[in-house]
Every structure is written in C-alpha cells, then in structure tokens.
Amino acid sequence: MDKKLGVAIHGAGGVAFAHVASWLRNPHVQIVSVSSRRRESAQRLIDEFKLDCPVRDNFDQVLADPAVDVVNISGPSQVHTPQGIAAAQAGKHILVEKPMALTMDENRALRDAVARAGVKSVVSFVLRWNPLVETLRSLLSGGAIGELLDIEVDYWHGIGTWYSGWEWAHTLKTGGSATLLAGCHALDALRFLAGREVVEVSAMSNNKKQLYEFDANVMATMKLDDGTIAKSSVLLDAELPYAFNIDLIGTQGSLRDNRIWSKQLFPGQKSWATMPTILPDSGDVHHHPFDAQINHFVDCILQDRESHCNVADAYRTHELCLAIDRSAAEGGRVVQLPLE
Fold it and tell me: Which helix (H) or strand (E) holds 259?
C-alpha cells in the first residue's frame, strides 16, 4: 500500500505509552496526532517518542482531521463510550481500551454506533494475544483434554493509591466496579477460551479495605450455554504478587496455567508437564502483547475483515460484567443472560 493509516492517540496515560510503542513498530501506520484532556500529558508522550505530529486537547479537532483513519481511545474509563461513538460517527476505525462501557445503555449505544458506521474496531482485551492463552485455546480446539467441564479464570491484583489512574479508578462514577475495572480481563479470557456464552451467573462481593467506592472483591459462579460450569474472581484488595489464574478441567485431561495433564498427548504421563511459554503474570502494561493486538487490527482494516475482539464481541464480555455486578448487588441472586 502507498498511504499509511493515520493513527490518532487520544488519552495519554500510562497505557498509551505501550500503545504508541506498538503502533510505531507496525510498518503500515503512522501516528498523525496525539491529544489528551491535559495538553501537557499529550506533549510528554510526543517528547518521549520524538513524534512529529500536532498536540491537541480538543477531540473534535482530532475527528475533523482527514489524516486520521484510526483513533486509539486510551483515556479514563468514563470517556470510552462517548468518544468511541463520536469516532465511529466520524468514520474512524477505533481501538478502545477496556472497559469500553460502564452501563448497559452505554454498552448498547457503542455497539450500535459502530455497527451503523461500518468501521472496524478492536477492544483492548489484550490478553487474547498472550502466548499462553493462544496455546491453551489451540490445545482445547485440538481435543487435548476432551470435553471441557469446568473453566476458572481469576484476576488477583492489589491495586491501591499507588496506581497512576487512582483518581478516576476508585470511584463508582468513573471506575464503575471491580469487575469492569479489572475483572473484565478474566471474564473475557473465560469467554474466549471456552468459545461459549454464559447463560446464568450468581456473584458475591465484599470491600474489606474500604479503599474503593464499590466492592473491591467479587466472586462469580456461572453456567455456560453447553452446560459447562465456570468460576471467576477479581480481588483488588489482594496482598500477593499479580496473578491471572487459568484452570481448564476436561473429561480427558486438565490445564492449569502452563501445566498440562493429558494422557492423550503424553501416554504414561505421571506428573504435570510444563509448557515453556510467556504467561500473563504481570500487570505491567509493557508486558502485555500490544504488538500482536495492533498488528492484528491493522490487518483487519487492510483486509476488510472483522476482529474476533471487536466491539460487537466485547459487548458480550461487558454484558457479563454487568450481570455479575447486578447479582452481587442483590446478594447473589441468579441473573440470566443475555440481559436484553
């Protein structure tokens, strides 16, 4: 192709630095704009990477720029939906950080706006491109552990006042919930690995440290549409190293993080075998596989195909998050999905 895709970075917090590094490594794009609600934040990002592009603090100017083909929406959670809708209506492809919505009304509105506009989208459930997750998905599809009977994915990360986004993350209005703020990664991985949808959920929660305006610790049990049972928890009060636990229990074997038990693959197996791969074992955004996600998204745009992690698919993950929050708020009442 002759013309490179023009990318606008809007939102210049910590994750934007990881995004920019990955965009710069793709040969089919160029960064043509950096903007933020704080102009000085955008300027820091430009200076860090020595970018040759304008700095802006007005999102309307970004959307009016004909050089912009893709908008990278990486501000705080409460702006993702309105900015995503505006970008789609302006005919821009969008990469939007998670959570893409904080309510079901926002969830539906963004899904419908992207569908109407016909633009390409990807939501930053970046762990779908983690090598361990990719390996587990391949083993499942190949029947390495037989039929899946139980799947459990947890997000345990003690996020406190040290977090650079604490100002907005800990409030009900702008952080939303523990499930939306962080647990959504585990729930999206659960959906992605199972390849099925959750049809009912029951959840309980607590808020032991009282750091958040919402319950910081949530555990949910679920049933999938094929009868598989599931469990997921998010623990933001946790005092332990970052942990993203994955357990896949099948009728012919099991997978626990990077350990495999499969007599189909390893006849005579007597103990767990360990797979040498990269685990999702760090909360550092620079550990996340943004290169793979962004390369995938660029290919989707250039080849005119939809991402498996587009807004329409991420709608289901956010719907699950909101169903869990609804159940927890009502003392564990069973909530049926879909919510619509």
Answer: strand 259-262
Question: What number is the average pLDDT over the span 304-310?
Answer: 98
Contact 57, 9 (CB under 8 A): no
Q: How far apart are CA 74 and CA 58, in angstroms?
A: 15
Distance of alpha carbon 340 from alpha carbon 131, whole angstroms? 34
For the stretch 119-147, pLDDT in tens is 999 999 999 999 999 999 999 999 999 99
Q: Of 93, 87, 103, which Cα lies nearest the Cα of 315?
A: 103
**Going by CATH, does the domain composed of 127-284+318-336 fall within 3.60.15.10?**
no
Name 253's Cβ contacts closer than 8 Å, sequence gap at least 6. Answer: 144, 145, 146, 260, 261, 262, 263, 264, 265
Pick the CATH number of 5-126+290-308 from 3.40.50.720, 3.40.47.10, 3.40.50.2000, 3.50.50.60: 3.40.50.720
Q: Looking only at Cα atoms, what is the longest distance across the chain?
A: 64
pTM of the predicted model as reported, rounded to 2 decimal places? 0.97
* Average pLDDT of the residues in 257-263: 96
